[in-house]
Protein backbone atom coordinates (compact mmCIF):
# COMPACT_ATOMS: atom_id res chain seq x y z
CA UNK A 1 0.00 0.00 0.00
CA UNK A 2 1.12 3.56 -0.47
CA UNK A 3 2.35 5.53 2.48
CA UNK A 4 -0.66 7.43 3.74
CA UNK A 5 1.32 10.17 5.47
CA UNK A 6 1.85 12.09 2.26
CA UNK A 7 -1.47 11.22 0.60
CA UNK A 8 -2.95 13.96 -1.55
CA UNK A 9 -6.61 14.91 -1.57
CA UNK A 10 -8.84 13.65 -4.40
CA UNK A 11 -9.17 17.20 -5.74
CA UNK A 12 -5.38 17.71 -5.81
CA UNK A 13 -5.01 14.37 -7.56
CA UNK A 14 -7.60 15.33 -10.17
CA UNK A 15 -5.97 18.72 -10.72
CA UNK A 16 -2.51 17.21 -11.10
CA UNK A 17 -3.76 14.67 -13.63
CA UNK A 18 -5.71 17.25 -15.61
CA UNK A 19 -2.63 19.45 -16.11
CA UNK A 20 -0.60 16.61 -17.64
CA UNK A 21 -0.04 16.53 -21.41
CA UNK A 22 1.85 13.47 -22.63
CA UNK A 23 2.75 13.29 -26.29
CA UNK A 24 5.29 12.21 -28.87
CA UNK A 25 6.61 13.85 -31.97
CA UNK A 26 6.44 11.64 -35.03
CA UNK A 27 8.09 12.28 -38.37
CA UNK A 28 10.06 10.89 -41.24
CA UNK A 29 13.80 11.15 -40.48
CA UNK A 30 15.14 14.65 -41.16
CA UNK A 31 11.79 16.41 -41.12
CA UNK A 32 12.84 18.27 -37.98
CA UNK A 33 11.67 16.26 -34.96
CA UNK A 34 14.86 16.78 -32.96
CA UNK A 35 14.92 20.47 -33.74
CA UNK A 36 11.30 20.93 -32.72
CA UNK A 37 11.93 18.99 -29.49
CA UNK A 38 14.77 21.33 -28.64
CA UNK A 39 12.62 24.39 -29.29
CA UNK A 40 9.83 23.05 -27.10
CA UNK A 41 12.37 22.54 -24.34
CA UNK A 42 13.46 26.12 -24.75
CA UNK A 43 9.95 27.28 -23.94
CA UNK A 44 9.80 24.93 -21.02
CA UNK A 45 13.00 26.48 -19.66
CA UNK A 46 14.70 23.10 -19.81
CA UNK A 47 17.30 24.49 -22.18
CA UNK A 48 18.70 27.97 -21.93
CA UNK A 49 19.84 28.13 -25.47
CA UNK A 50 18.71 26.07 -28.36
CA UNK A 51 19.28 26.36 -32.01
CA UNK A 52 22.70 27.72 -32.84
CA UNK A 53 24.49 25.09 -34.82
CA UNK A 54 27.18 24.44 -32.26
CA UNK A 55 24.80 24.61 -29.33
CA UNK A 56 22.60 22.20 -31.18
CA UNK A 57 25.38 19.74 -31.81
CA UNK A 58 26.52 19.92 -28.19
CA UNK A 59 22.99 19.61 -27.01
CA UNK A 60 22.51 16.63 -29.18
CA UNK A 61 25.55 15.06 -27.61
CA UNK A 62 23.99 15.37 -24.20
CA UNK A 63 20.39 14.61 -25.01
CA UNK A 64 20.23 11.63 -27.27
CA UNK A 65 23.46 9.79 -27.77
CA UNK A 66 22.90 7.03 -25.32
CA UNK A 67 24.41 4.69 -27.76
CA UNK A 68 27.60 4.98 -29.71
CA UNK A 69 25.73 3.68 -32.70
CA UNK A 70 23.64 6.78 -32.81
CA UNK A 71 26.70 8.87 -33.37
CA UNK A 72 28.17 6.57 -35.96
CA UNK A 73 25.02 6.20 -37.96
CA UNK A 74 23.59 9.61 -37.26
CA UNK A 75 20.28 8.08 -36.33
CA UNK A 76 18.33 8.28 -33.15
CA UNK A 77 17.97 4.79 -31.79
CA UNK A 78 16.86 5.20 -28.22
CA UNK A 79 13.88 7.03 -26.89
CA UNK A 80 14.08 9.83 -24.41
CA UNK A 81 11.39 11.02 -22.06
CA UNK A 82 11.54 14.68 -21.22
CA UNK A 83 9.40 16.51 -18.73
CA UNK A 84 8.97 20.25 -18.40
CA UNK A 85 6.46 22.74 -17.08
CA UNK A 86 4.98 25.32 -19.38
CA UNK A 87 2.11 27.63 -18.42
CA UNK A 88 0.17 25.55 -15.92
CA UNK A 89 0.88 22.28 -17.71
CA UNK A 90 3.26 19.48 -16.93
CA UNK A 91 4.43 18.37 -20.36
CA UNK A 92 5.78 14.87 -20.94
CA UNK A 93 7.49 14.65 -24.30
CA UNK A 94 8.40 11.16 -25.41
CA UNK A 95 11.00 11.08 -28.15
CA UNK A 96 10.61 8.30 -30.66
CA UNK A 97 13.34 6.66 -32.71
CA UNK A 98 13.25 7.71 -36.32
CA UNK A 99 14.58 4.80 -38.33
CA UNK A 100 12.09 2.47 -39.91
CA UNK A 101 13.62 -0.65 -38.42
CA UNK A 102 12.89 0.69 -35.00
CA UNK A 103 9.22 0.89 -35.61
CA UNK A 104 8.54 -1.72 -32.96
CA UNK A 105 10.10 0.43 -30.31
CA UNK A 106 8.32 3.48 -31.64
CA UNK A 107 4.99 1.71 -31.58
CA UNK A 108 5.52 0.84 -27.96
CA UNK A 109 6.29 4.45 -27.12
CA UNK A 110 3.11 5.54 -28.85
CA UNK A 111 1.06 3.41 -26.45
CA UNK A 112 2.28 5.68 -23.67
CA UNK A 113 1.11 9.00 -25.16
CA UNK A 114 -2.21 10.80 -25.28
CA UNK A 115 -1.49 12.87 -28.41
CA UNK A 116 1.06 13.24 -31.19
CA UNK A 117 2.65 16.09 -33.11
CA UNK A 118 3.40 15.06 -36.67
CA UNK A 119 6.25 17.02 -38.24
CA UNK A 120 6.19 17.23 -42.03
CA UNK A 121 8.92 18.75 -44.19
CA UNK A 122 6.82 21.22 -46.18
CA UNK A 123 9.16 20.87 -49.15
CA UNK A 124 8.56 17.12 -49.33
CA UNK A 125 5.09 16.48 -47.98
CA UNK A 126 4.03 13.17 -46.45
CA UNK A 127 6.87 10.62 -46.50
CA UNK A 128 6.77 6.87 -45.91
CA UNK A 129 7.69 6.80 -42.26
CA UNK A 130 5.24 9.59 -41.44
CA UNK A 131 2.50 7.54 -43.03
CA UNK A 132 3.28 4.43 -40.99
CA UNK A 133 3.50 6.28 -37.70
CA UNK A 134 0.34 8.18 -38.49
CA UNK A 135 -1.46 4.87 -39.05
CA UNK A 136 -0.44 3.64 -35.61
CA UNK A 137 -1.69 6.82 -33.98
CA UNK A 138 -4.92 6.64 -35.90
CA UNK A 139 -5.50 3.01 -34.96
CA UNK A 140 -5.15 4.01 -31.35
CA UNK A 141 -7.44 7.01 -31.83
CA UNK A 142 -4.66 9.39 -30.73
CA UNK A 143 -5.29 13.07 -31.59
CA UNK A 144 -2.72 14.30 -34.12
CA UNK A 145 -1.43 17.85 -34.58
CA UNK A 146 0.47 18.65 -37.77
CA UNK A 147 3.45 20.97 -38.00
CA UNK A 148 4.48 21.86 -41.56
CA UNK A 149 8.15 22.61 -41.07
CA UNK A 150 10.95 24.34 -43.01
CA UNK A 151 8.85 27.15 -44.51
CA UNK A 152 12.08 29.15 -44.70
CA UNK A 153 12.94 26.85 -47.60
CA UNK A 154 10.99 26.48 -50.82
CA UNK A 155 7.84 24.60 -49.83
CA UNK A 156 4.98 22.90 -51.63
CA UNK A 157 1.88 25.10 -51.96
CA UNK A 158 0.05 24.99 -48.62
CA UNK A 159 -3.25 23.98 -50.22
CA UNK A 160 -1.50 20.98 -51.83
CA UNK A 161 -0.11 19.97 -48.45
CA UNK A 162 -3.59 20.06 -46.94
CA UNK A 163 -4.94 18.03 -49.85
CA UNK A 164 -2.25 15.48 -49.24
CA UNK A 165 -3.23 15.12 -45.58
CA UNK A 166 -6.80 14.51 -46.64
CA UNK A 167 -6.10 12.25 -49.62
CA UNK A 168 -3.02 10.32 -48.60
CA UNK A 169 -3.65 10.03 -44.87
CA UNK A 170 -7.41 10.30 -45.03
CA UNK A 171 -7.73 12.77 -42.16
CA UNK A 172 -9.56 16.07 -42.29
CA UNK A 173 -7.16 18.98 -41.96
CA UNK A 174 -7.89 22.40 -40.52
CA UNK A 175 -5.12 25.01 -40.79
CA UNK A 176 -5.02 27.10 -37.63
CA UNK A 177 -2.42 29.36 -39.14
CA UNK A 178 -1.37 30.10 -42.70
CA UNK A 179 2.07 30.75 -44.19
CA UNK A 180 2.93 34.11 -45.72
CA UNK A 181 5.11 32.94 -48.59
CA UNK A 182 7.89 30.37 -48.43
CA UNK A 183 11.64 30.09 -48.94
CA UNK A 184 13.37 33.46 -49.22
CA UNK A 185 9.95 35.09 -49.44
CA UNK A 186 8.69 33.55 -46.20
CA UNK A 187 7.52 36.42 -44.04
CA UNK A 188 5.50 34.84 -41.25
CA UNK A 189 2.15 33.23 -40.50
CA UNK A 190 -1.42 34.40 -40.13
CA UNK A 191 -3.09 33.08 -36.98
CA UNK A 192 -6.64 32.32 -38.17
CA UNK A 193 -8.07 31.87 -34.67
CA UNK A 194 -6.97 35.28 -33.40
CA UNK A 195 -6.88 37.01 -36.81
CA UNK A 196 -3.33 38.15 -36.16
CA UNK A 197 -0.20 38.20 -38.25
CA UNK A 198 3.09 37.07 -36.83
CA UNK A 199 5.96 38.47 -38.81
CA UNK A 200 9.11 36.48 -39.15
CA UNK A 201 12.52 38.01 -38.69
CA UNK A 202 15.48 35.85 -39.45
CA UNK A 203 17.80 35.54 -36.48
CA UNK A 204 21.14 33.80 -36.42
CA UNK A 205 19.96 30.18 -36.61
CA UNK A 206 17.12 30.96 -34.24
CA UNK A 207 19.49 31.01 -31.32
CA UNK A 208 17.11 33.15 -29.34
CA UNK A 209 13.37 33.33 -29.23
CA UNK A 210 12.32 34.74 -32.55
CA UNK A 211 10.86 38.23 -32.30
CA UNK A 212 7.19 38.24 -33.14
CA UNK A 213 5.10 41.28 -33.96
CA UNK A 214 1.38 41.22 -34.36
CA UNK A 215 -0.91 43.23 -36.64
CA UNK A 216 -4.01 42.65 -38.83
CA UNK A 217 -3.78 41.06 -42.33
CA UNK A 218 -4.78 44.30 -44.05
CA UNK A 219 -2.28 46.25 -42.00
CA UNK A 220 0.16 48.38 -44.01
CA UNK A 221 3.01 46.80 -42.14
CA UNK A 222 1.99 43.42 -43.53
CA UNK A 223 1.50 44.67 -47.08
CA UNK A 224 4.88 46.35 -46.91
CA UNK A 225 6.54 43.21 -45.59
CA UNK A 226 5.20 40.93 -48.32
CA UNK A 227 5.81 40.93 -52.05
CA UNK A 228 2.68 42.17 -53.78
CA UNK A 229 2.20 38.78 -55.48
CA UNK A 230 2.60 36.85 -52.24
CA UNK A 231 0.22 39.19 -50.44
CA UNK A 232 -2.47 38.71 -53.10
CA UNK A 233 -2.04 34.99 -53.09
CA UNK A 234 -2.28 34.75 -49.31
CA UNK A 235 -5.36 36.95 -49.31
CA UNK A 236 -7.00 34.73 -51.95
CA UNK A 237 -6.06 31.52 -50.15
CA UNK A 238 -7.43 32.85 -46.88
CA UNK A 239 -10.66 33.86 -48.58
CA UNK A 240 -10.92 30.41 -50.06
CA UNK A 241 -10.38 28.81 -46.66
CA UNK A 242 -12.95 31.06 -45.01
CA UNK A 243 -15.42 30.27 -47.79
CA UNK A 244 -14.86 26.52 -47.60
CA UNK A 245 -14.52 26.59 -43.86
CA UNK A 246 -16.55 24.31 -41.74
CA UNK A 247 -16.17 25.50 -38.16
CA UNK A 248 -13.20 24.18 -36.30
CA UNK A 249 -14.39 21.33 -34.10
CA UNK A 250 -12.20 20.52 -31.10
CA UNK A 251 -14.23 17.35 -30.47
CA UNK A 252 -13.19 16.02 -33.89
CA UNK A 253 -9.56 16.65 -32.98
CA UNK A 254 -9.93 14.62 -29.79
CA UNK A 255 -11.59 11.84 -31.76
CA UNK A 256 -8.57 11.73 -34.09
CA UNK A 257 -10.73 12.65 -37.11
CA UNK A 258 -9.38 16.16 -37.67
CA UNK A 259 -5.81 17.40 -37.50
CA UNK A 260 -5.10 21.04 -36.69
CA UNK A 261 -2.33 22.24 -39.02
CA UNK A 262 0.40 24.76 -38.20
CA UNK A 263 3.10 26.19 -40.45
CA UNK A 264 6.51 27.39 -39.36
CA UNK A 265 10.21 26.77 -39.15
CA UNK A 266 11.54 24.85 -36.20
CA UNK A 267 15.17 25.72 -36.91
CA UNK A 268 14.29 29.41 -36.88
CA UNK A 269 12.06 28.94 -33.88
CA UNK A 270 9.19 30.37 -35.84
CA UNK A 271 5.63 29.25 -35.25
CA UNK A 272 6.81 26.95 -32.48
CA UNK A 273 5.24 28.84 -29.60
CA UNK A 274 1.96 29.18 -31.49
CA UNK A 275 1.99 25.43 -31.98
CA UNK A 276 2.85 24.69 -28.35
CA UNK A 277 0.20 27.05 -26.97
CA UNK A 278 -2.60 25.71 -29.16
CA UNK A 279 -1.45 22.18 -28.66
CA UNK A 280 -1.69 22.53 -24.87
CA UNK A 281 -5.13 24.13 -25.21
CA UNK A 282 -6.49 21.39 -27.44
CA UNK A 283 -4.65 18.17 -26.53
CA UNK A 284 -6.32 15.92 -23.97
CA UNK A 285 -5.08 15.26 -20.45
CA UNK A 286 -4.73 11.56 -19.57
CA UNK A 287 -8.03 9.85 -20.24
CA UNK A 288 -9.52 6.64 -18.87
CA UNK A 289 -8.01 3.49 -20.35
CA UNK A 290 -9.64 0.11 -20.55
CA UNK A 291 -7.96 -2.86 -19.01
CA UNK A 292 -8.09 -6.38 -20.44
CA UNK A 293 -11.48 -7.09 -18.87
CA UNK A 294 -12.94 -3.99 -20.51
CA UNK A 295 -13.23 -2.03 -17.28
CA UNK A 296 -12.47 1.69 -17.63
CA UNK A 297 -9.70 2.88 -15.29
CA UNK A 298 -10.19 6.52 -14.27
CA UNK A 299 -6.83 8.33 -14.34
CA UNK A 300 -7.77 10.33 -11.24
CA UNK A 301 -8.71 7.20 -9.31
CA UNK A 302 -6.76 6.85 -6.08
CA UNK A 303 -5.58 3.40 -7.06
CA UNK A 304 -2.26 3.47 -8.80
CA UNK A 305 -1.84 1.50 -12.02
CA UNK A 306 0.77 1.62 -14.78
CA UNK A 307 2.24 -0.46 -17.58
CA UNK A 308 5.78 -1.07 -18.80
CA UNK A 309 6.26 0.20 -22.35
CA UNK A 310 10.01 0.15 -22.69
CA UNK A 311 12.99 -1.55 -21.12
CA UNK A 312 16.54 -0.49 -21.70
CA UNK A 313 19.81 -1.63 -20.20
CA UNK A 314 23.12 0.18 -19.97
CA UNK A 315 21.75 3.61 -20.73
CA UNK A 316 24.48 4.90 -18.56
CA UNK A 317 27.71 2.98 -19.17
CA UNK A 318 28.91 3.98 -15.71
CA UNK A 319 25.99 2.28 -14.03
CA UNK A 320 25.33 -0.69 -16.31
CA UNK A 321 21.82 -1.01 -15.06
CA UNK A 322 18.44 -1.72 -16.45
CA UNK A 323 15.59 0.76 -16.64
CA UNK A 324 11.96 -0.18 -17.12
CA UNK A 325 9.86 2.78 -18.21
CA UNK A 326 6.31 2.84 -16.95
CA UNK A 327 3.45 5.03 -18.06
CA UNK A 328 1.17 5.78 -15.13
CA UNK A 329 -2.44 5.12 -16.09
CA UNK A 330 -4.14 6.02 -12.84
CA UNK A 331 -3.48 7.52 -9.46
CA UNK A 332 -0.31 8.73 -7.89
CA UNK A 333 3.11 7.15 -7.85
CA UNK A 334 5.13 7.41 -4.68
CA UNK A 335 8.67 6.22 -4.31
CA UNK A 336 8.89 3.02 -2.24
CA UNK A 337 5.25 2.16 -2.82
CA UNK A 338 4.31 -1.51 -3.03
CA UNK A 339 2.54 -2.80 -6.08
CA UNK A 340 1.76 -6.11 -7.74
CA UNK A 341 3.12 -7.19 -11.09
CA UNK A 342 -0.26 -8.50 -12.19
CA UNK A 343 1.21 -10.98 -14.68
CA UNK A 344 3.50 -12.82 -12.27
CA UNK A 345 1.43 -11.90 -9.18
CA UNK A 346 4.66 -10.91 -7.45
CA UNK A 347 4.68 -7.98 -5.08
CA UNK A 348 7.39 -5.41 -5.57
CA UNK A 349 8.54 -2.20 -3.98
CA UNK A 350 9.17 0.65 -6.40
CA UNK A 351 12.29 1.98 -4.75
CA UNK A 352 14.71 3.24 -7.33
CA UNK A 353 12.54 5.51 -9.44
CA UNK A 354 14.12 8.06 -11.71
CA UNK A 355 13.38 10.68 -14.25
CA UNK A 356 15.92 10.66 -17.02
CA UNK A 357 17.08 13.54 -19.08
CA UNK A 358 19.49 11.69 -21.30
CA UNK A 359 22.39 10.95 -18.96
CA UNK A 360 21.13 13.15 -16.19
CA UNK A 361 19.10 11.36 -13.58
CA UNK A 362 16.90 12.66 -10.86
CA UNK A 363 15.05 10.67 -8.24
CA UNK A 364 11.29 10.78 -8.60
CA UNK A 365 9.44 10.93 -5.31
CA UNK A 366 6.01 11.27 -6.74
CA UNK A 367 4.31 11.35 -10.10
CA UNK A 368 0.79 11.23 -11.50
CA UNK A 369 -1.26 9.58 -14.20
CA UNK A 370 0.17 10.64 -17.55
CA UNK A 371 3.76 10.72 -16.28
CA UNK A 372 6.54 8.36 -17.21
CA UNK A 373 8.86 7.01 -14.55
CA UNK A 374 12.03 4.98 -15.05
CA UNK A 375 12.39 2.08 -12.61
CA UNK A 376 16.05 1.22 -12.22
CA UNK A 377 17.17 -2.22 -11.16
CA UNK A 378 17.00 -5.84 -12.02
CA UNK A 379 13.33 -6.39 -11.72
CA UNK A 380 11.83 -9.26 -13.58
CA UNK A 381 9.72 -6.88 -15.57
CA UNK A 382 8.72 -7.54 -19.16
CA UNK A 383 7.46 -5.07 -21.73
CA UNK A 384 3.69 -4.94 -21.41
CA UNK A 385 3.56 -5.82 -17.70
CA UNK A 386 1.01 -4.07 -15.53
CA UNK A 387 1.96 -2.75 -12.10
CA UNK A 388 -0.99 -1.95 -9.91
CA UNK A 389 -2.37 -1.86 -6.43
CA UNK A 390 -5.16 -4.24 -7.41
CA UNK A 391 -3.94 -7.58 -8.79
CA UNK A 392 -6.98 -7.90 -11.08
CA UNK A 393 -5.95 -4.95 -13.28
CA UNK A 394 -4.11 -5.90 -16.47
CA UNK A 395 -3.52 -3.63 -19.46
CA UNK A 396 -3.14 -4.93 -22.98
CA UNK A 397 -1.59 -1.82 -24.43
CA UNK A 398 1.52 -3.09 -26.16
CA UNK A 399 1.18 -4.27 -29.75
CA UNK A 400 3.20 -7.33 -30.71
CA UNK A 401 4.72 -7.67 -34.16
CA UNK A 402 5.75 -10.74 -36.10
CA UNK A 403 9.42 -10.74 -37.14
CA UNK A 404 10.24 -10.59 -40.84
CA UNK A 405 13.92 -11.47 -40.80
CA UNK A 406 15.68 -14.33 -39.13
CA UNK A 407 19.31 -15.10 -38.44
CA UNK A 408 21.54 -17.32 -36.33
CA UNK A 409 23.76 -15.45 -33.94
CA UNK A 410 27.18 -17.08 -33.59
CA UNK A 411 29.38 -16.34 -30.63
CA UNK A 412 32.93 -15.74 -31.90
CA UNK A 413 34.82 -16.51 -28.73
CA UNK A 414 34.17 -19.59 -26.61
CA UNK A 415 35.97 -17.95 -23.70
CA UNK A 416 33.39 -15.19 -23.67
CA UNK A 417 30.37 -17.47 -23.88
CA UNK A 418 28.93 -16.34 -20.55
CA UNK A 419 29.06 -12.68 -21.53
CA UNK A 420 27.48 -13.53 -24.84
CA UNK A 421 24.62 -15.44 -23.20
CA UNK A 422 24.04 -12.87 -20.41
CA UNK A 423 24.13 -9.96 -22.82
CA UNK A 424 21.82 -11.66 -25.27
CA UNK A 425 19.35 -12.54 -22.54
CA UNK A 426 19.22 -8.94 -21.37
CA UNK A 427 18.80 -7.48 -24.83
CA UNK A 428 16.08 -9.98 -25.64
CA UNK A 429 14.24 -8.83 -22.54
CA UNK A 430 14.37 -5.32 -23.91
CA UNK A 431 12.59 -6.58 -26.99
CA UNK A 432 15.49 -5.76 -29.35
CA UNK A 433 14.79 -9.09 -31.08
CA UNK A 434 13.02 -12.38 -30.33
CA UNK A 435 14.57 -15.81 -29.83
CA UNK A 436 13.18 -18.98 -31.38
CA UNK A 437 13.97 -22.58 -30.55
CA UNK A 438 13.68 -24.80 -33.59
CA UNK A 439 11.73 -27.98 -32.95
CA UNK A 440 13.55 -30.97 -34.43
CA UNK A 441 16.46 -28.63 -35.01
CA UNK A 442 18.97 -30.89 -33.31
CA UNK A 443 20.95 -29.68 -30.34
CA UNK A 444 22.57 -26.60 -31.87
CA UNK A 445 23.40 -24.05 -29.22
CA UNK A 446 23.43 -21.22 -31.75
CA UNK A 447 20.46 -18.97 -31.02
CA UNK A 448 17.99 -18.31 -33.81
CA UNK A 449 16.71 -14.74 -33.68
CA UNK A 450 13.88 -12.91 -35.38
CA UNK A 451 13.40 -9.15 -35.84
CA UNK A 452 11.11 -6.82 -37.70
CA UNK A 453 14.01 -5.17 -39.54
CA UNK A 454 17.66 -6.08 -40.14
CA UNK A 455 18.97 -2.95 -38.44
CA UNK A 456 17.68 -4.42 -35.19
CA UNK A 457 20.24 -7.22 -35.59
CA UNK A 458 22.95 -4.68 -36.20
CA UNK A 459 22.07 -2.85 -33.01
CA UNK A 460 21.99 -6.12 -31.12
CA UNK A 461 25.47 -7.07 -32.32
CA UNK A 462 26.80 -3.62 -31.68
CA UNK A 463 25.45 -3.52 -28.16
CA UNK A 464 26.62 -7.05 -27.37
CA UNK A 465 30.11 -6.00 -28.27
CA UNK A 466 30.06 -2.51 -26.76
CA UNK A 467 28.22 -3.33 -23.56
CA UNK A 468 29.16 -6.96 -22.90
CA UNK A 469 32.40 -7.44 -24.83
CA UNK A 470 30.90 -10.29 -26.87
CA UNK A 471 31.82 -10.46 -30.55
CA UNK A 472 29.31 -12.16 -32.79
CA UNK A 473 28.59 -13.16 -36.36
CA UNK A 474 25.17 -13.21 -37.99
CA UNK A 475 24.14 -15.93 -40.41
CA UNK A 476 20.95 -15.12 -42.25
CA UNK A 477 18.15 -17.67 -42.37
CA UNK A 478 15.75 -17.97 -45.29
CA UNK A 479 12.44 -17.51 -43.52
CA UNK A 480 10.64 -14.20 -43.80
CA UNK A 481 7.27 -14.94 -42.22
CA UNK A 482 6.30 -16.16 -38.76
CA UNK A 483 2.85 -17.33 -37.71
CA UNK A 484 1.73 -18.21 -34.19
CA UNK A 485 -0.22 -21.46 -33.99
CA UNK A 486 -2.89 -22.87 -31.77
CA UNK A 487 -5.28 -25.75 -32.48
CA UNK A 488 -8.79 -24.37 -32.77
CA UNK A 489 -9.90 -27.16 -30.44
CA UNK A 490 -8.16 -29.04 -27.67
CA UNK A 491 -5.27 -28.08 -25.46
CA UNK A 492 -3.23 -25.26 -27.03
CA UNK A 493 -0.15 -26.18 -25.04
CA UNK A 494 -0.20 -29.90 -25.87
CA UNK A 495 3.46 -30.50 -26.71
CA UNK A 496 2.88 -32.86 -29.60
CA UNK A 497 0.12 -31.07 -31.42
CA UNK A 498 1.45 -29.88 -34.79
CA UNK A 499 -0.12 -28.83 -38.04
CA UNK A 500 1.09 -30.41 -41.28
CA UNK A 501 4.34 -29.10 -42.57
CA UNK A 502 4.84 -27.67 -46.05
CA UNK A 503 8.02 -27.27 -48.03
CA UNK A 504 10.62 -24.93 -46.53
CA UNK A 505 8.64 -24.45 -43.36
CA UNK A 506 9.95 -25.15 -39.87
CA UNK A 507 8.39 -25.20 -36.45
CA UNK A 508 9.83 -23.40 -33.50
CA UNK A 509 8.87 -22.28 -30.01
CA UNK A 510 9.07 -18.63 -29.05
CA UNK A 511 10.41 -17.36 -25.72
CA UNK A 512 7.03 -18.03 -24.11
CA UNK A 513 6.75 -21.57 -25.41
CA UNK A 514 4.18 -20.87 -28.11
CA UNK A 515 4.33 -22.89 -31.29
CA UNK A 516 5.41 -20.86 -34.32
CA UNK A 517 5.66 -21.70 -38.01
CA UNK A 518 8.58 -20.12 -39.88
CA UNK A 519 7.89 -19.77 -43.59
CA UNK A 520 9.98 -18.69 -46.56
CA UNK A 521 7.34 -16.96 -48.72
CA UNK A 522 3.75 -15.80 -49.10
CA UNK A 523 3.21 -18.78 -51.35
CA UNK A 524 4.37 -21.19 -48.64
CA UNK A 525 2.10 -19.41 -46.20
CA UNK A 526 -0.88 -19.88 -48.48
CA UNK A 527 -0.21 -23.61 -48.88
CA UNK A 528 0.32 -23.93 -45.15
CA UNK A 529 -2.92 -22.09 -44.36
CA UNK A 530 -4.92 -24.18 -46.85
CA UNK A 531 -3.61 -27.40 -45.34
CA UNK A 532 -4.33 -26.50 -41.75
CA UNK A 533 -7.83 -25.20 -41.53
CA UNK A 534 -8.31 -26.62 -38.04
CA UNK A 535 -5.55 -24.40 -36.65
CA UNK A 536 -5.63 -20.80 -35.51
CA UNK A 537 -2.84 -19.17 -37.50
CA UNK A 538 -2.08 -15.76 -36.04
CA UNK A 539 -0.02 -12.98 -37.54
CA UNK A 540 0.20 -11.35 -34.14
CA UNK A 541 2.39 -13.11 -31.59
CA UNK A 542 0.47 -14.56 -28.65
CA UNK A 543 1.02 -12.75 -25.32
CA UNK A 544 3.38 -14.03 -22.62
CA UNK A 545 1.78 -16.66 -20.42
CA UNK A 546 1.08 -15.51 -16.86
CA UNK A 547 3.97 -17.44 -15.35
CA UNK A 548 6.72 -16.12 -17.66
CA UNK A 549 9.34 -14.09 -15.91
P1 LIG B 1 14.86 14.63 -37.32
O1 LIG B 1 15.06 14.67 -35.85
O2 LIG B 1 13.43 14.63 -37.74
O3 LIG B 1 15.64 13.59 -38.04
O4 LIG B 1 15.38 16.02 -37.91
P2 LIG B 1 16.36 17.12 -37.31
O5 LIG B 1 15.66 17.95 -36.29
O6 LIG B 1 17.65 16.48 -36.93
O7 LIG B 1 16.54 18.04 -38.58
C1 LIG B 1 17.07 17.55 -39.78
C2 LIG B 1 17.76 18.68 -40.53
O8 LIG B 1 16.78 19.65 -40.90
C3 LIG B 1 18.79 19.41 -39.67
O9 LIG B 1 19.81 19.83 -40.55
C4 LIG B 1 18.02 20.62 -39.19
O10 LIG B 1 18.85 21.71 -38.87
C5 LIG B 1 17.16 20.92 -40.40
N1 LIG B 1 15.96 21.68 -40.05
C6 LIG B 1 15.07 21.47 -39.05
N2 LIG B 1 14.11 22.42 -39.07
C7 LIG B 1 14.39 23.24 -40.08
C8 LIG B 1 13.77 24.42 -40.58
O11 LIG B 1 12.77 24.91 -40.09
N3 LIG B 1 14.37 25.00 -41.66
C9 LIG B 1 15.50 24.51 -42.23
N4 LIG B 1 16.00 25.15 -43.27
N5 LIG B 1 16.11 23.41 -41.78
C10 LIG B 1 15.57 22.78 -40.71
P3 LIG B 1 21.23 19.14 -40.55
O12 LIG B 1 22.00 19.83 -41.60
O13 LIG B 1 21.06 17.66 -40.65
O14 LIG B 1 21.76 19.42 -39.11
P4 LIG B 1 22.37 20.77 -38.50
O15 LIG B 1 23.73 20.87 -39.05
O16 LIG B 1 21.50 21.91 -38.94
O17 LIG B 1 22.35 20.54 -37.05
Detailed description of the structure:
The two termini are 23 Å apart. This protein has 14 helices and 31 strands. Residues 1-5 and 48-79 have low confidence and may be disordered. It is α+β, with helices and mostly antiparallel strands and 549 residues long. Strands 18-17-23-14-15-22-19-20 form an 8-stranded antiparallel β-sheet. It has an 8-stranded antiparallel β-sheet with strand order 27-24-26-25-29-30-28-31. The longest helix is centred in the middle third of the chain and has 17 residues, at 228-244. A hairpin with a 5-residue loop joins strand 12 (289-290) and strand 13. It has 3 domains: 22-80 and 101-282, P-loop containing nucleotide triphosphate hydrolases (Rossmann fold), CATH 3.40.50; 289-388, Beta Barrel (Elongation Factor Tu (Ef-tu), domain 3); 405-538, Peptide chain release factor 3, domain III (Alpha-Beta Plaits, 2-Layer Sandwich), CATH 3.30.70.3280. The site of guanosine-5',3'-tetraphosphate has 19 residues, from helix 2 and helix 3. Guanosine-5',3'-tetraphosphate (G4P) binds at residues 27, 29-35, 53, 56, 98, 149-150, 152-153, 265-268.
Short description:
The chain is an alpha+beta fold.
Name the descriptors:
Alpha-Beta Plaits; Elongation Factor Tu (Ef-tu), domain 3; globular; 31 strands; alpha+beta; disordered N terminus; eight-stranded antiparallel β-sheet; Rossmann fold; 3 domains; binds guanosine-5',3'-tetraphosphate; 549 residues
Indicate the low-confidence ranges by residue numbers: 1-5, 48-79
User: Architecture of the largest domain, according to CATH?
Assistant: 3-Layer(aba) Sandwich
State Rg. Answer: 25 Å
CATH class of the largest domain: Alpha Beta
Tell me what portion of residues adopts beta-strand conformation: 25-35%
Can you list the ligands bound to this structure?
guanosine-5',3'-tetraphosphate
CATH topology tier name of the largest domain: Rossmann fold
Query: How many distinct folded domains?
Result: 3
> Based on DSSP secondary structure assignment, what is the total number of beta strands?
31
- With strands numbered from the N-terminus, the spatial order across the biggest sheet is 18-17-23-14-15-22-19-20
Structural shape: globular
Find the CATH superfamily of the largest domain. P-loop containing nucleotide triphosphate hydrolases
Q: What percent of the residues sit in helical stretches (DSSP H or I)?
A: 25-40%
Structural class: alpha+beta
Mean pLDDT: 83
Q: How many helices?
A: 14
How many angstroms does the end-to-end distance come to? 23 Å
Main sheet summary: 8 strands, antiparallel
Amino acid sequence: MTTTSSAVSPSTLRREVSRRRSFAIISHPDAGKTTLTEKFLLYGGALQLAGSVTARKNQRATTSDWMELEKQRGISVSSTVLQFEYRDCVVNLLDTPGHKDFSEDTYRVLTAVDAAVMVVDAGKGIESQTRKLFEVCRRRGVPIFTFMNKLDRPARPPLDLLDELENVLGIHACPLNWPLGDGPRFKGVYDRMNREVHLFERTAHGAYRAPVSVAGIGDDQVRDALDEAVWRQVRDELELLEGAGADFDAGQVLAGALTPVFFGSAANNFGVQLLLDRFLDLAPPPLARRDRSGAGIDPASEEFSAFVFKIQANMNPKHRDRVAFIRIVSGRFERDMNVVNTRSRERMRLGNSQRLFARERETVDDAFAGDVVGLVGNHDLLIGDTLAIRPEVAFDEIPRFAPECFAWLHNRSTAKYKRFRDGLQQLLKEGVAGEFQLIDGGTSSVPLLGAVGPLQFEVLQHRLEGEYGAETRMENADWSIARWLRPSQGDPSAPDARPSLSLGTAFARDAHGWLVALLPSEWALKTFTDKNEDWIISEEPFPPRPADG
